[in-house]
Amino acid sequence: MTMIKVVIKSLFNRKxxxxxxxxxxALSVSLLLGIERVRSGARKSFESTVSxxxxxAGARSGPVNLLLYSVFRIGDATNNVSYQSYERxxxxxxxxxxxxxxxxxxxxxxxxxxxxxxxxxxxxxxGDKKLSFSQGxxxxxxxxxxxxxxxxxxxxxxxxxxxxxxxxxxxxxFQEHADKPxxxxxxxxxxxxxxxxxxxxxxxxxxxxHVDWKDGAPPRPGEEVSQSHLxxxxxxxxxxxxxxIKLKSKIAIxxxxxxxxxxxxxxxxxxxxxxxxxxxWETIGLAENALFAVSxxxxxxxxxxxxxxxxxxxxxxxxxxxxxxxxxxxxxxxFSVLIVESCVLTLSGMVAGLLVLYFGLTVSRPVLESxxxxxxxxxxxxxxxxxxxxxxxxxxxxxxxxxxxxxYRNSLADGLMVKS
Amino acid sequence: xxxxxxxxxxxxxxPSSTSAVLDIDSFSVAQGEKVFLHGPSGSGKxxxxxxxxxxxxxxxxxxxxxxxxxxxxxxEARDLVRGDQMGFIFQMFNLxxxxxxxxxxxxxxxxSKRKAMRVLEQASSLGDEARRLLSALRLDxxxxxxxxxxxxxxxxxxxxxxxxxxxxxxxxVIADEPTSAxxxxxxxxxxxxxxxxxxxxxxxxxxxxxxxxxxxxxxRVVSLEEINRSFTADTNE
Lengths: 420, 237
Ligand SMILES: Nc1ncnc2c1ncn2[C@@H]1O[C@H](COP(=O)(O)OP(=O)(O)OP(=O)(O)O)[C@@H](O)[C@H]1O
Ligand SMILES: [Mg+2]
Fold this sequence. Notes:
Chain A is of the alpha+beta class and 420 residues long.
């Protein structure tokens, strides 16, 4: 009781240094916990780019590669999956539904995804969120297109506008499908996933764009098939790039995976997206570790700052310690005063740091969520946070042994009378 | 009268020096006695007070306070004796700047249950006793409570420190040059007030000063030069 009273009044007497010390602890605590939130938020939103999918299948290549082009629409597939193989598995007795993905074209740098109605019906992200339309509806006609929110925003598109697609995925393509314009029938809500940057057309449209192409080369003059002619044709897609699979029962995951991997007619690969996502995150997670290391260092600098500020006042406080000794304080009391003092500083810094953290989260949450699809939890401190806070407190007690020992030694040397 | 303090065959040297600062064959203070201790600067007066207060321990010899041999006690037990049964006043800057006058005066009661209990035997609260002591020392408690102790004059500060040394009726008050920062007028009044309070409770007083004039008011005047066999005063003073 006496101790707390002495410590608090003494700290209050040194308002400026106390305030600055608490402020620096608060900032480093909020930085540490904030980085932790961003870390777990980024990881969560990364891992929930696609959810509710049991398997992803594509032509045989590396699992990460398959994940990258099918989910993140980064890079290209080395091979296609024939439509027959896809149909074979889409009607498989253990399969609940499939979403086909066909890549290859682009629109002003945004990837074009050929798919079917299942995409809008079954695609899930961030746990159990469904795709929804901010305007319009799913494609129906052959030359209908549904665009992601970010495309609509950055290119300023609205419903009914006509766009043309280009062959290949480059920003600048010389091979425009200029003769076959699409009209925008739907704009999706923001998801914070690659869906926002995708142009969605039907598999049939994807095929139709290329019916007159031969061996990857555009049609020779005079051999083009016109858009009006295509509308009357019966188009059946020949190949897709990958497909998402949802099984009726999770128990069958490994069976079906093996069945796809052992498929005789075509070299296919099936992956568990959750596992591959996690592996991928671990490889790109180096940045996250660097961030964490920086915040740990910031924290150490803060602790050192606190010790320095305590040591700086040590000489002025020799008299204070001598007075305390003269009224009956034990040597251990003098030692403990400094320890308790740094605990009080650290605890106040933590409380202030949590306030800063929650204030920062409240302010930045809507922006991060809409711009980056990152949901930062505005929840009470997690178990992890509590561990960090305890570590901070323990750390501050450990480092405050330095000024405490100094005060103790001084007080022994001074006895009851301080010279000067 | 029984001695409250007895120092015998005491020898003390600082760890940093080879020769002893103090080598005292015998020095004692009777209960209620007021002893004036003088000696040149550097002769070891403050060192002796630290030994009596149990903050330092002699290499040889015994210090018996109120029947207890301080040397045989643990340092914690000595801290308790000091807190319970002694009161200290120093030359200057006696007060904790972050406590007000009353809080400064009642501070010893936070460390000593005995002092707190002895106060509460006679007063209704620690604060009341602090205010009583302040008025006995001719200070207006109401004015003091509004001011920070750092805003008080040196004379006022010394009286607050005296009240702190006196609270809880310790067996002995030990003062190390408490008047050296005061002018002679205030000094004489201060001394009279201190004596009055000591007399009220039969408190012994060991009072250190350079100022030999003050000695005449005391029961006994002791020169450290005379009792200390290894006398080493600073030669340049
Ligand atoms: N903490 C210390 N460590 C080592 N030597 C000390 C220490 N304090 C005092 N001394 C030495 O002990 C001797 C006595 O010092 P002390 O302070 O007791 O003298 P004093 O009689 O109180 O002098 P003054 O009248 O100036 O206060 C001096 O020679 C001093 O240098
Ligand atoms: Mg001295």
